[in-house]
Every structure is written in C-alpha cells, then in structure tokens.
Amino acid sequence: MKKPRVFVSRRIPEASLRPLMQECDVEIWEDELPPPYEKLLEKVEGKDGIISLLTDRIDAHLMDVAGPQLKVISQYAVGVDNIDLKAATDRCIVVGHTPGVLTESTADLAFGLLMAAARRIVEGAEYVKAGKWRTWHPLLLLGNDVHGATLGIVGMGRIGQAVARRAAGFGMKVLYYNRTPKRVEIPNVDARQVDLETLLRESDFVSIHTPLTEETRHMIGRRELAMMKPTAVLVNTARGAVVDTDALYEALKDGRIGYAALDVTDPEPLPSDHPLLTLPNVVVVPHIGSASTTARTRMGDLAVANLLAVLNGKRPPHVANPDVLERPECRRA
Ligand code: DGY
C-alpha cells in the first residue's frame, strides 16, 4: 500500500520523527531557516500531511496548492496564529497543535525573564564581561524586589496559571485578566480577577500569556502602557504582536515604564539594528520559551501523534479547529 506523504518544515527531535518515518513517506526541510513561502508551496503540493512551525505562513492559497488530499496540518507549537484556521476548517483539514507539554517550561522562562529584569541580571553580566567591575558599591545596579510585589497576568490559561504558581513561591500578590472572564482557583495562590486597567495600574510586573488573534493584536498599546507604573516590568513570552512595539519603545525610552523582558517580538526575529535593542532597560531572548530538551521532544511526539491519528482516521489528541471534527461533510469513509 502507498504510504501517506508528509512534509516536515524543519528538523524536529529525531526520536519524535521515528514513528513518522515508519508509517509515512517523509520529506524534511533541512535548512536552519524556514522555507520561503514559494518553496513551501512547492513542498506541500501533493502531501497528505504537513508538520508546520510557527514561522510558516499557512494560508488558504497554500492549502489549495497542496491539494484536496491534504488532511492534516500539525503545528509544532501551541500557538497557531500563522495558520488560517477557518480556511482549514472550510477544506476539512484538521489542524493539530501542542498544548500542555510546554506549559511549565514556558512558565519557567517567563519567570526567569521577570527575575532578570527585576534584578538587572543581564546588565550585571554585561558589566562584568566589559571589565567594569572594580569594587562592591552600595548603589551599583539597584533593581526591584520580586518577593512581595504584585504580578499581573494577562491571559490566565495554562501558562498564565503556571506562572501564578511560581509567583506564589515568591510571596507575590497575583492579579489576572482574561478576555473571557473565568474564575481560576489555584491551591495556595492568592489570585484576584480584575479588569485590564486595574491590572495595569496596580501591577509591578505584567506578564503576557494570551494567544495572538485579531482581538489581541496590539492589546498592549500606548494607552495601556501609559496606565502602568513607571517602575513596572513588562514580560512577554506569548506573541510579539500582542504588544505595539513602537509604543513599547517610546514608553521604555521616556521612562514611562521601567523595563521590558521579551521572548517574543514584532517583528520576529528582531533585527540587530532595531531601536529597541539600543535601550538599556530591555532584555530580548530569541523565542526560547519552550526550548528545553524535554519540552521540545514532547512537542515533537505530540505533533507526530496528532498527524498520525488523522492519517489513520482517529481523533487526534489536540485539535486547534475542533469544529472540523463535527462537520458531517468532513467525515471520511
Ligand atoms: C508555541 O508553542 O506557540 C511557542 O511559542 C513555541 O513553543
């Protein structure tokens, strides 16, 4: 029997690929950089499944070029803002993604960035490497305490809640805002649901954990940044475009907020000559929230499990467009 044909848009951990190799005819994009859109179109043509990355634009045109046999797009990430979900559902294409397996790792990084900004750890390391460390000084690199401070979490999903648990260990007070209000009870965490304005006005640290959608694009703009404390730290490990980068640059430059610690940026990657990188009160890391060996392997395992389930006519563990499973016209024989 002919094996299903699958395109994988970058090399993912080897162990995750093994079951895929056994069951499918697999083509992998081996470059370090993502396939340009035109190449991607060429590569997906005639494929039954695609394992995609957040750097791939997966739109209606691409799905049409792939052809009517395309059954599944399995994203190697939890966020699917690069994929046109409606176009996939309209074409009976299941979109898989990888929630859960990267929650704790991403929360670790968010909290690490928060600490780094509060205590100016990156600045300190650069200071030492630059040979500037001549003595202990009472006023050298003073930062802000994390313990006892107020943390505002924007987006109280899995990762937001995992960050709240970490904050409790530091005796922080937690405020949270969710676009769709939801009550969250986390054992031993003192967390209060508030509106966005209260969160921005009262928090010493604001950490973003909302997915990027048309509603959340630039959710943190000039107006919202102006509500924050002049000492506040903004942490973003979600998607860069949730924050208006120009507004953020101005707020940081003019001292209207204290610091930004970013794992994600808009644009991404951030060019090395971007004005944001000239500021002393910014730390940027290259979208490494889920970059632990364990998390990335589990993401690979789940992306492959989602893909193989669909190709074998089964319900996949995690679907980003669950409506597709309910559409009678999408049920396959
Ligand atoms: C995701 O999964 O959406 C992250 O941004 C990368 O792990």
Structure description:
The protein has 333 residues and is of the alpha/beta class. The protein has twelve helices and twelve strands. Helix content is 34%, strand content 14%. The mean pLDDT is 97. Strand 10, helix 10 and strand 11 form a beta-alpha-beta unit. It folds into two domains: 135 residues, Rossmann fold; 182 residues, NAD(P)-binding Rossmann-like Domain (Rossmann fold). Helix 1 packs parallel to helix 11, helix 2 packs parallel to helix 3 and helix 5 crosses helix 7. The chain starts with a strand and ends in a 7-residue tail after the last helix. The strands form two sheets. The chain has a seven-stranded parallel β-sheet, with helices on both faces. The site of (2R)-2,3-dihydroxypropanoic acid has 7 residues, from loops.
Write the layout of secondary structure elements.
Blueprint: E1 5-8, H1 14-23, E2 25-28, H2 37-44, E3 49-52, H3 60-66, E4 72-75, H4 85-90, E5 94-96, H5 103-118, H6 121-129, E6 150-154, H7 158-169, E7 173-177, E8 191-193, H8 196-202, E9 205-208, H9 222-227, E10 233-236, H10 245-253, E11 259-262, E12 282-284, H11 293-311, H12 323-326
Parallel strand pairs: 1-2, 1-3, 3-4, 4-5, 6-7, 6-9, 7-8, 9-10, 10-11, 11-12
